[in-house]
Amino acid sequence: MFVNMDDGKFADSSVISGLNFKDDGRSAVAHDIDLDGNLDLLVTNRTAPRLRVMRNQAESNHNFIQLKLVGATNPDAIGARVEVHLNDGQRTLLTQTRRAGSGYQAQSSAWLHFGLGDNDVSQIIVKWPNSEVSNFKNVTNGKRYLISQSENSIALQLPSKAASITDEAGDKIESVVTPFARIVLPNPIPMPQLRISAPYNDKATLFGAGTTAATATVNSKALFINLWSESCAPCITELSAINNNRDRFLKANVVPVALNVTSNQAPNNWSAPHAQATTQCIDILDTIQRTLTKRDITLPTPSSFLVDARGNLVVFYLGAVDIDVITSDFELLNMTDAQRLEAAVPFSGRWLTKAPSPSLLALERAFTENEMHETAREFQVGYIYVQMARGYTETQKLDLALKYFDLAAEEGPYFFEAYSGRGYVKQLGGDIGGAIADYTTALALRPSDKTVMANLEKARAALKD
Q: Same domain, yes or no, for 211 and 335?
């Protein structure tokens, strides 16, 4: 870390800056993470820790300007040259070129940062890669501007909503609250059974792949599952924001559920359902997020899962997330898969290939490898068909029950369950001959099943009558 001594020389300040780590470093990139006008550093390493975020706490008068370029045919404006002319009597010129990379497998922010000292800006000149030139005046120090080549305009860009946090000394600082990860699923996945310990140590089960969808009604509600603990400060802040915005949840027909990962204690002043997450529940959610993100990162607290009224996971968050992000994502619950696909990417564009077909095979394999065979079975397509057919049977939707038992019989490997269940549905619907045929096939697969044998006798008796 070198400090400019203002006399043409630089001084090595690595020790006093806190950057003298004994890491196997690879790159250091600059970005104003907390939007305070100082450039912070993100340092990557070959080995752990793979990333260090170094917040710049040096005193400054915050006299700066930040610019982001949007090119006409080159959206990232790679290759554009920016000249910031200072009104300092010496016509000092500051220049930067928008580059695509900044070190080994690293790239600095798209925002170009200019430190201005005690000076004002007289004009900004942008020389675009296609030789066009834009000239702008009347800009204000300490602001962020978005410059568009196609519109030949410069517009003030306000920072994201900031949340108040404190540093180690207890002083208040401003920091943008963003989740560690926000994963939108274009094709929602059915949630398996999650066991929880409800208040007073009552055991309960949430979801169940297939069954939840089949038994959903117009009165069913989406759930926002939040994993938290009493010792997690971001958890307390996030739950407080959720509690203070219950009306937004109610309007969207979403019920927030706080699952404590360490005890059955409820959050302070919490007015929604709460319970303790069992080890089985945590392990399942952890395996889901590891498999879908393809990263071996332990499930953090807080983590949240938005599940629609049919029991399908739509989006999940790893780490704390702003309440406005949560409530805006309620719109995902009513989108089609195609619409969610567009919402899953950070920017709009044109698809050059067809979207991959949804598959639960990776989740089934992950749970099998972790010897969680009961949950692995819930991600087998044939099992889901059987569960959906059983759910529709319970709700007397016999046409849908037959449809899914047919699919289960085609898919396998739950052939006995498919034929015995289909026979029962046909019997309920008055197709006695069809029921007898299916019961006979089921008994060929499992000859000693007493329930099917009893149903077959009833069907034969009804046929004689």
A: yes
Q: Is the peptide bond before 199 cis (omega within 30 degrees of 0)?
A: no
Taking the C-alpha atoms of residue 194 and residue 207, their distance in angstroms, rounded to an integer, is 7
Strands (E), 90-249: 93-97, 111-115, 121-127, 133-136, 143-148, 153-156, 162-166, 172-176, 181-190, 194-198, 202-206, 222-228
Quick one: pLDDT band at residue 33, thresholds 50, 70, 90?
Answer: confident
Q: Any idea what DSSP says for residue 178?
A: -
Question: In the numeric block, which tokens belong to residue 104?
Answer: 């080994």
Phi, psi of 63 (to 5 degrees): -90, 100
pTM for the predicted model, two decimal places: 0.63
* Residue where one domain finishes, among candidates 31, 54, 77: 54
Would you state the pLDDT for residue 173? 40
426 and 288, same structural domain? Answer: no
Distance CA 112, CA 65 (A): 8
Residue 111 · residue 146 · CB < 8 Å: no
Examine the fold and report which residue of 14, 36, 54 is the final residue of a domain before the chain moves on.
54
Query: How many Cα atoms within 13 Å fall on the side-chain side of residue 164?
Result: 3
Q: Which residues contact 108 (CB under 8 A, 6 or more apart)?
A: 29, 30, 31, 99, 102
What are the structure tokens assigned to 44, written together?
């990557």
Neighbours of 96 (CB within 10 A): 14
Its domain, for residue 456, covers: 380-464
Q: Is residue 6 part of a domain?
A: yes
Q: Take residue 80 and report the two structure tokens written for it.
A: 């554009």
Q: What is the pLDDT of residues 334-374, one digit of tens each?
A: 999 889 988 888 777 788 888 778 899 999 999 999 999 99
User: What's the sign of the alpha-carbon dihedral 247, 248, 253, 259?
Assistant: negative
Please report, rounded to a whole number, the percentage of residues in the chain having pLDDT higher than 90. 65
DSSP secondary structure string for all residues of 122-162: EEEEEE-TTS-EEEE----TTEEEEEETTTTEEEE-PPPPE
Q: Model confidence over 42-68: pLDDT tens digits?
A: 999 988 888 888 888 877 776 899 999
The answer to whether residue 389 is domain-embedded is yes
> Which residue's entry shows tokens 């970005």?
31
> Which tokens hold the place of 405?
């038992």
Between CA 257 and CA 247 the distance in angstroms is 15
**pLDDT digits 0-9 by tens, 126-161:** 999 999 999 999 899 888 999 999 999 999 886 543
Retrieve residue 244's tokens.
């203070």
Please say if the pLDDT value at position 171 is more than 80: no
The rounded distance, in Å, linking the Cα atoms of 186 and 355 is 10
Total domains, the chain: 4
Q: For residue 266, count other CB atoms closer than 10 A to its CB.
A: 17
